[in-house]
Write a structure and sequence with these properties.
Immunoglobulin-like; 5-stranded antiparallel β-sheet; single chain; mainly beta; 4-stranded antiparallel β-sheet
Amino acid sequence: MYLKINHSKKLKMLKKNYSKTGKSCRVTFKLPAEVKAESVILCGDFNDWDENSNPMKKLKDGSYSQTLSLNCEKEYRFRYLLDGSDWENDWEADKYMTNDFGSEDSVIVV
């Protein structure tokens, strides 16, 4: 499933805030209301792809958000699990890498 989003307005999906020491980064992952999902789980290398660890919070505007603190100088593969069955990439990821399932994972570099 690939989402068709109106890109005429710029949506900031990944926001990075580095610590003063440069050893960690608070990353906010965000999906717009257009995903029209009942639930969204953030899965990736940072949580061993656990489908229960990082449920995203649904905001009043219908978008979803989750903030994690990640170690710097690393790359993390991740995807969003929509409604327990559909995997979605982040279209503002730093890059993409092919996975073992014949599709691609989003990658964030911090």
